[in-house]
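My current task is to audit a protein record that another person submitted. Alongside the sequence sits a line of tokens, each denoting a local backbone shape. Please read both lines and tell me whether the tokens look consistent with the sequence. Do not assume that whoever made the record got everything right. Thanks in advance; the entry in question is below.
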Amino acid sequence: SLVVLPSNINAKISLSANKIRYSNLETSWVASDIVMKERCLQATNTLATTNMGDVYLEGFYSTRTKKDLKAGFDLTLSGITAEKVIELFPAVDSIVPMLKAFRGLLDCEIAATSSIDTSMNIVLPTLSGIVKIDGKNLSLTDSDELNAKFIEEALPFFHCVLSFFQDRRAF
């Protein structure tokens, strides 16, 4: 159910914690600055050191009116393996199936904003986001996902090129 932020609270909080465990994620240190004002909550400068890599997070949650409910975040995972990304966010595997073919450390940035309804569900037509995956010294393993994706994307291209040259030979 919806958590409505009070309009009469203005607060600035600095948070720092050590040794937090959530599922397979172990955090040795986390810090964040949180501001609450005018029915909005904003987390900035959130940093964490974990067993899966470093985490940087900025986010907001706004409940200005019943028809103006919004949330958003910008999450960066630095120095994390593809397996750990998929373990933390299983939906990523269906969005980017090739990801599991990468070996090495990734830097991933995921950012999104959306309106939410009074049950705190995302209102899909208002969802806007981006995913950026980067890394250094990465390698690709031979995998079914990689081969299937290459064939799916490359064959239409090669067919188009072949047709172009076959058309030119007719002259």
About this structure: The longest helix spans residues 144-169. The mean pLDDT is 84.
